[in-house]
């Protein structure tokens, strides 16, 4: 059986992969597991987590299924704080939906499948922030729960965008046709002297090779994912708390997140004396 060495939990599935050393959880608790727990059948591990730990830790249910799962689940903080990918030992079929290639080891042979989604490099690049990559993956697959989707499911919700109130809310509008999100995105790409295309999927394709400068390429990919993550967070915040952040506040938060991420990345870089680190390039464009 294939064993998953759990990292950030954004690749391995909660129910089907063998990541707890007890075998796939669906085989331990049965087919009613997703129904009892509320963790959907195709969820990846990170979807079963919140900032504090496992969603199941907050459940007051006395269900034997939930009690059993709690006993099998590892320390949540190790997964939450991980910055490495989940890895698989043994044979594993490619899951095209993930847009990720996995190594396949058979005896002494090593084969890697290569059928990658066009957005692969925009999502799973080295140096990414795991929680930002996860929501970017959700957006790339067009699975964001925006108001157009809610209405298509028959829910009675307003159609207009939570952020700008002037257009119907959809993934493509939110990223970055909306005046609010477009203002944030354009601030950063203009500082980098880049000219990305219009349209979410066009931007994803552009991000596969946004600059010949590898430092700039990493920076703009990190910015894209951070802006996407914070726009999504702001949209949900306005719905649930009625608290609004200004564009300036979002920009400041993006700057802080990227600055903190680039510091350890820069320390790991091996550079020639004349080369600038990725952090130095960032400061060149964004130091106030």
UniProtKB/TrEMBL annotation:
InterPro entries: RVT-Znf (IPR026960). Pfam families: zf-RVT. Residues 116-185 form the Reverse transcriptase zinc-binding domain. It comes from the Eukaryota. This is Uncharacterized protein LOC130506959. It comes from Raphanus sativus (Radish).
